[in-house]
Amino acid sequence: MKSFFKGLLINITGTIISSVVFILLIVGIITLIMSDSDIEIKENSILKLNLSEFNVVERSTDNPFEDFNLGGNTSKSIELKEILDNIEKAKNDDNIKAIYINTSYVNAGLSQIEEIRNKLLGFKSSKKPIIAYSEVYSQTAYYLASIADEIYLNPAGIVELKGFSISQMFYKDLLEKLDIDIQIIRHGKFKSAVEPFTLNEMSDENREQMSLLVNSLSNNIISSIAKERKLSTELINKHTNNLSLENAKKCLELGYVDGLIYQDQLEKKLISISKGNKLNLVSLTKYNEVKDKNKKSSSDKIAIIYATGTIDMGKGNETSIGSITTAKAIKKAREDKNIKAIILRINSGGGSALASDIIWRETQLIKKPFVVSMGDYAASGGYYIACEADHIIANPTTLTGSIGVFGMIPNLQNFYKNKIGISIDTVNTHKSADMGINRALTKFERKKIQQGVEETYNTFISKVAEGREMTKKEVNEIGQGRVWSGIDAKSIGLIDSHGGLEEAIEIACDLAKIKKYQLISLPKKKDFLIDVMLNVGEETTISNLLIHKLGINIKLIKTIEDLISQDKIQARIPYIIELK
Q: Among residues 179, 176, 172, which one has the least CA distance to residue 201?
């Protein structure tokens, strides 16, 4: 009977796989046919930016199930570079008469929003108008829309302006209830990645750095809005503190919008602006398929190597940084004679110290222009792999630094015994053979791990000092695990200039002394169909097939699991910070 059910399960699994592969083959053929067709844009068209319907990512995958949710809702992923390229393309496209921003909220990091916003500011040199309209503007959506020549709001709508905050969850009491002891070994008084496991609130040092950080980011956003809306920062801060934008009428009276209108009235305005007989809106998805006639081919190449997510040993993908995958991509780029410059695009809060060092070594071997472009995060291990660059560029809202190291080993002995009734006994050949999560560390073992942490920290600051042409003492003073905003990072020498990926490409061209170039992206994306078929024999459980391979978006892996599962010694940002 057991073998019968096993055979039945295998048959069901095989049927699922065959059906999925067949569907994907059909979709792939249709997509290929459609991509070969030349899409024409009508005269007097307007490019519509509705970023509320997208997840803005550094790099998408070829997995058609990537954005599928069990709840039944789907949202498309779009690469940041694709958005920037489309805005640039529209700038030079005579058929595009304006850009229409219709975004109530933005599924993107603050630094990504800043890069899109800056690109839209550059679009204005074309003298084509930018019009914004929404029923509601979130804070980040309004930050993006504030560059528009005209901002409109629904008469019953609102602009959210309440300020920014950083919140953190603490697990100390939970771990105590579970009888789990988290053993911490760290270096750096600001290395607060471990605080959620040992405290019930932020330490004074962490509260200090978080306060400086959030205020630095807020000041940048408010001053940017003030400049475009011709309001003083003092006035915006006053309105924010008083929650003055309580309704649409107030938003108009206080100068945050230029008119209160409905969708049909907005469409009439857009028709008038485009000077056409009817409204021709072009979506980002459609415009992405339009060939850029201004792009010129060249044998000279610039490689953009994407390093996104947690840094770990082994192979990575579009959302994680594997030491093998990333090091291999850097090696390929540095050995290719046609690649004249390398850009490492980092969006990472760090991870394994060992994996970071492996990637760092490959960057040190680069003998051609090497530029680092920092996204939302390039901190701790993310900064480790950046410090050898000829030029480091980051946005004012980028979070960077966090030059510090920690070790963390959970002791689950009491959890096993007191909560689930399991006892563990061992036989060792040597006194530390069973060192791990099943018992407490001895003083000797803790001392050895502390030595490893100290040595790793010393190596970290030494490499930063060499790469940034600073002394170890100077690096140590701005290190200690402290997180800095891109604004402050420039003043203390951690970065060279402010800007995004587009500016990084310009710097790479200047350093390589080339004007015409072809961009290539590394590491090479995995082919989804081939990846599924290669792994059918290895991963035939239904959970693996549906969750791992088909990309169903189940967010069960939390910070606590991620931290515990990593190497003993880590270089990681305190936590993934979300401004709200």
A: 172
Q: Which residue type sits at 528?
A: F
List Cα–Cα distances, 534 to 529, 530, 539, in angstroms. Answer: 9, 6, 10
User: In whole angstroms, what separates CA 430 from the centre of its chain?
Assistant: 44
Residue 580 scores a pLDDT above 90: no
If you average pLDDT over residues 133-145, what whole number do you get? Answer: 97
| Lowest-confidence pick of 103-117, 119-133, 165-179, 491-505 | 165-179
Q: Which long-range contacts (CB under 8 A, 24 or more apart) does 429-432 make?
A: none
Beta-bridge mates of residue 569: 407
Half-sphere exposure of 13 (CA within 13 A, CB side): 20
Look at the block and give the residue holding tokens 């090497």: 370
E strands within 383-462?
391-394, 399-401, 405-411
The yes-or-no answer on residue 297 being catalytic is no
CB 97 within 8 A of CB 275: yes
Distance separating alpha carbons of residues 263 and 269, to the nearest angstrom: 10
DSSP 3-state assignment of 76? strand
Q: What is the DSSP letter of 162?
A: -
In this model, does residue 17 exceed pLDDT 80? no
Q: Which is nearest to 318 in space by CA: 66, 496, 579?
A: 66
Q: What is the pLDDT of residue 319?
A: 85
Q: Which of 48, 89, 91, 191 is catalytic?
A: 191
User: Both tokens of residue 304?
Assistant: 């953009």
Residue 564: band (very low, low, confident or very high) from pLDDT cuts 50, 70, 90: low
Which residue type is seen at 457?
A: Y
Task: Let me know how long the chain is.
Answer: 580
Alpha-carbon span 579 to 168, nearest angstrom: 11
Contact 435, 445 (CB under 8 A): yes
Of 138, 320, 380, 485, the active-site residue reads 380
Can you tell me the mean pLDDT for 417-445?
93
Is 405 or 121 the better-scoring residue by pLDDT? 121
Active-site residue, 191 included: yes
Q: Is the dihedral of CA 525, 526, 529, 530 positive or negative?
A: positive
Under 8 Å between Cβ of 379 and 535: no
pLDDT tier, 555 (very low <50, low <70, confident <90, very high otherwise): very low
Q: Rounded distance, CA 376 to CA 121, Å?
A: 20
Question: Other CB atoms closer than 10 Å to residue 376's CB: what's the count?
Answer: 25
371 touches 343 (CB < 8 A): yes
Q: Which two tokens stand for residue 358?
A: 């492996």
Distance CA 156, CA 136 (A): 9
Q: Is the pLDDT of residue 76 over 60?
A: yes
| Residue that is written with structure tokens 């959210």 in the block | 160
> Does the model's pTM come out above 0.70?
yes
Give the closest residue to 399 by CA, choosing from 297, 286, 484, 491: 484
Instruction: Give, in order, the Cα–Cα distances in Å from 514 to each of 301, 306, 338, 343, 370.
Output: 9, 22, 12, 15, 14
DSSP bridge pairs for 393: 373, 497
What structural domains does the chain harbor?
41-161+245-287 (3.90.226.10), 301-423+432-572 (3.90.226.10)
CA 436 to CA 425: how far, in whole Å? 13
pLDDT at 480: 87
- Residues 468-507: pLDDT tens digits? 999 999 999 999 888 999 999 999 999 999 999 999 999 9
